[in-house]
Amino acid sequence: MPISTTLKPLGPLFALSATLAAGPAMAQDAQDLANKLQAVYATAGYDIVLGAGTVSGDSISYDGLTVAIKALGVAEPLKIGTKLTFNGVKEQADGSYDAEEMVIPDMNVDVDTVSVEIKDMVFKGVHISGAATPTVDDLIQAFTSFNSGPITANENGQTVVEVASLSGTNDFERGADGKVTSVTAEAQLDGLKAPLPAIPDPQAKAFVDALQLTSVSGKAHESMHWNFADGNMNIDDLSLTLDDLGSIAMSFNITGYTTQFLQETNEAQARIIDLEAKGDTEGVTGEQNQMAAKMMSNLSLVSASVRYDDDSAVGKILDYLGKQQNITGEQMASGLKMVVPAMLAQSGLQSISADVSAAVSNFLDDPQSLQVSVEPAAPLAFGAIAGAAAQPDTLASTLGLQVVANEAN
Question: Where are the alpha helices (DSSP H) in 121-239?
Answer without folding.
Answer: 136-140, 202-210
